[in-house]
Write a structure and sequence with these properties.
This protein is an alpha+beta fold. It is built from 4 helices and 9 strands, in the order ααββαβββββββα. A hairpin with a 2-residue loop joins strand 6 and strand 7.
Length: 181
């Protein structure tokens, strides 16, 4: 009887060890998947901010976004609910914009924080020209951009926090009043 009891205890222990290792394996697998997605989001976010900073390839920039994009500019209090509205608002093809010759990129990305569905970039904008007027501040204007990614790894929500100069605020305000976007 004692030997049957010992055998049952041994089988029970082995069974629980197998169950525990499968749980650990499952948790490890979930962790690996989350890390892989985080790494993918980080790579996409780096490419996104590089494309944005270069401000040369409009179609490539737009390819990061989902069609049902929800966009918000927290400072300007602009809320858009489609990629089409976002295109009109950002308006890269407008010939009125020119980079400053001393700055091949329109901003420096200083910080990037990511998880498995979100990226937050923080940086500093450089001076630029709009309609032949130089837009620059006595200090470098900062920005923080929040990006949320969907299951297809497209940006489906974005919130911009940008430290605009007074003349940029006035220019954008005029566009908003005219309904130019």
């Amino acid at each position: 009887m004692k030997s049957i009891y010992r055998l049952l205890c041994l089988l029970s222990c082995l069974s629980s060890l197998g169950w525990m290792s499968s749980c650990t394996s499952s948790q490890s697998s979930d962790s690996s998947i989350a890390k892989a997605r985080k790494d993918t989001i980080e790579n996409i976010a780096e490419e996104y901010f590089e494309t944005y900073a270069n401000r040369e390839d409009w179609e490539s920039f737009l390819s990061f976004y989902a069609e049902d994009l929800k966009f918000e500019d927290a400072i300007l209090q602009v809320h858009l609910d489609s990629l089409e509205a976002f295109k009109a608002f950002y308006d890269w093809p407008n010939p009125g914009f020119r980079k400053h010759p001393d700055y091949p990129e329109i901003f420096n990305l200083e910080d990037l924080v990511v998880d498995d569905s979100t990226a937050v970039g923080r940086g500093v904008f450089h001076p630029f020209y709009w309609q032949d007027t130089l837009f620059r501040m006595e200090w470098d204007p900062t920005f923080t951009i929040w990006l949320w990614f969907d299951d297809s790894l497209k940006i489906h929500r974005q919130v911009d926090w940008v430290e605009y100069s007074g003349n940029v605020l006035m220019s954008v305000g005029e566009r908003i009043e005219k309904g130019d976007y």
